[in-house]
Amino acid sequence: MVLIASARSNSPPIVLRHQTSTMGFFNNLKNKVANEIKGSLLKELGLGGDPEPLTQEKFEETKPDELRKDIRMISGCADHQTSADVSNVSSFQLPDPAGMAGGALTSTLLKVLYADERKLEEDLSFTEVLMQVRNHLKKGRYSQIPQLSSMNPIDVGTKFDLVPDTATGTRRAVMIGINYVGDSPGELKGCWNDVLNMKKYIMDVHGFDEENITVLLDDGDHIEPTYANIINAYKKIIEESSDGDAIFLHYSGHGTKLRDDDRGEEADGYDEALCPRDFATAGMIRDDDLYDILVKGCPDGVHMVSLMDCCHSGTIMDLPYIFRADGEQTEMILDPDMNIEAFIQQITGKLMDFLEKVLKQ
C-alpha cells in the first residue's frame, strides 16, 4: 500500500513510501509479538492443546500484574435473568428521600447494609450480605440471583466492604438512573429513586462528597443519561482517579443482550449491554465498551466497585471470578461460563497497546 498526502487542495500529492514501509514493519512486528504472547499465555494456562484443566493457581500465576486490579461488581441477576422494578419499596424501610418505587437489587441491598450498619458489634461477610439480599428477593417472589464478580479472587467469608480502609484518597462516584419516560411499554418507575437512595447511603456512611458524585438522570434536572454522556462520565472518573482513590459506579435501568460482535469471549455468544436513554439512535453500551474504559483503563491502586441493577448483568464487566448467591456456591471461582481463551486475547490486546506506545516513542 502507498499512502498519498496533500498539504493543500492545490498542492501536488506526496508519496510516503518510507512511512508505508515503516508502518508495515511495525504492524508485522506487533502481530508477531501478539501471537507469541498469546500462545505463551495459553500454553501456561493449560489451553491450546494442553489436556490439563485450567486451575485458579495456574491462571493467577500467568495473569499479568497490570490486570491484578481491585475491581468488583455486584449485579442483580445472572446473564440469562431479568431484574425487577418494584412499585412500592416501603417494606424495605429505607431512609427514602425519593419516592415509593425502586429496583429490587438496590432496595434490598440498602436494607441489608443499613441493618448491618446499626449492628456495630458485628460485620457481615460478602456471603452473608448477598445471601440476605437473595432471601429478601425470594420472599418477594423474585427469582433473580445476586452475584459478585471480581478481577481477583475474593474470600467471600471476609467482611463485606463497599469501600475498603486502604482507599484513603478521594472517593468518586458515577450514578446513573434511567426511567425512559414516555417510552411505553419500557418505562420504569424506580431508577431515579435507586440513585438518590444509594447516593444518600454512600454520602452518609462512606463519606463521599457531593462534588465528587456525578449523577445522570432522565428527569430534566440532571445530566441526561445519553450514550455519549455515560461514556464521557466513565472516562472522566477514570482520568481523575489515582492510587489510593475509590470509585463507585451505580447503574439502574434497562439491560439487554446482543450478539457478540467481535471478541468471542462470551460462551453463550451474546454480549451484555446497558441501554442509554437514546439507545434507539445511539445504540447500546456493550460489555466490551465497559471493559475497555473501566477495567483496562482503571489506574493501579484504585479500588472500584460497580453496582449494576439491570437485566442480564451477571458478567457485564467481563471479570473472570464470580460468586453466585444461590445457596449452593460457597466460594468465589473462575467463571465457568467465561471463554478464558478470549479473555487472554483481551490481555494480549492490552499488552499490544503498551507495545505500540513504546515503539512509537
Write the layout of secondary structure elements.
Layout: E1 4-5, E2 14-15, H1 17-45, H2 56-62, E3 71-75, E4 85-86, E5 102-103, H3 104-118, H4 126-139, E6 147-150, E7 171-177, H5 191-206, E8 213-217, H6 227-240, E9 246-252, E10 255-259, E11 270-274, H7 279-282, E12 285-286, H8 287-295, E13 303-309, E14 321-324, E15 333-334, H9 340-360
Helix pairs in contact: 1-9, 3-4, 3-5
Domain Peptidase C14 caspase: 60-152, 171-321
Organism: Cyclotella cryptica
Family: Belongs to the peptidase C14B family.
Description:
By secondary structure, the protein is α/β, with parallel strands linked by helices. It has one domain: Rossmann fold, CATH 3.40.50. It is 36% helix and 17% strand. It is built from 9 helices and 15 strands. The strands form 4 sheets. The protein has an 8-stranded mixed sheet with strand order 8-7-9-13-3-6-14-15, with helices on both faces. It has a 3-stranded antiparallel sheet with strand order 10-11-12. A two-stranded antiparallel sheet has the order 1-2. Strand 14 and strand 15 form a beta hairpin. It is globular and about 50 Å long. The N terminus is likely disordered.
